[in-house]
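Appendix B, example 12.
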Amino acid sequence: MKPKKALGQHFLTAPSVAAAMVRAAHVAPHDTVVEIGPGKGALTAPLLSRAGKVIAVEKDAALVEELRHTFSEAIKTGRLALVEGDARQVDFSALAGTMPYKVVANIPYHITGALLRHILAAPRPPSTAVLLLQKEVAARIAARGGKESLLSLSVKAYGEPRMVRTVRAGSFFPKPKVDSAILAIGGITRAHFADEKEEALFFALLHAAFAHKRKKALPPLRRRWGARAEAAAAQCGIGEDARAEDIALSAWRCLARTLAEKQGAAE
């Protein structure tokens, strides 16, 4: 099959990379694993060799048919479930039922941000996510002690990301223009937020501040949330000259929590 450019298809062709992803996710016989975009099954096969059950979500109908043929035996035994659809619109926790689950996937570059948010903010998120994505993006997400980005903070708000290894462009067909990397996100939880209101406020604050990340963070927050934002920032140790990219995750969490409390008291 000719890869579809519109779907961002770059099929993984390196067995060693697939094996590294399975190891990074610590896949065990009792695990349920959700795979996003299985493509031609390069990652599906090693997942099936280690996991108790694999749920593969594929948008391309032609690939779904090919996978049904390739993995017919695993489908018959119930060890593989194929779901045709857009992963951004699928409730992974509903697919897994009551079982804990992990996500392991080679995800298209052009929907990385949307998929990450969808995975991490699921009603019941996975315990672990191991993703193959653009190297530069993975490095920015996993960076420690440097400048943050909207994406890095959005991931770290839910879990602990780490770079596993670089993956050369030649490990895919067709060959992308840049290298990729395996990113592992462990300890995923939504428990850092008191409730959905605080979670939504956290991301609203990030988006407002990062709209002009090279400028001071407080002015756009003050314009939207008024004096309460200024008071909350002072309480959380965020200085008047701080830029969004220089504010630590702990301070953003404090800001969302404190501002939510102040708004609740004012209502």
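The mean pLDDT is 92. The chain has two domains: 5-186, 196-266.
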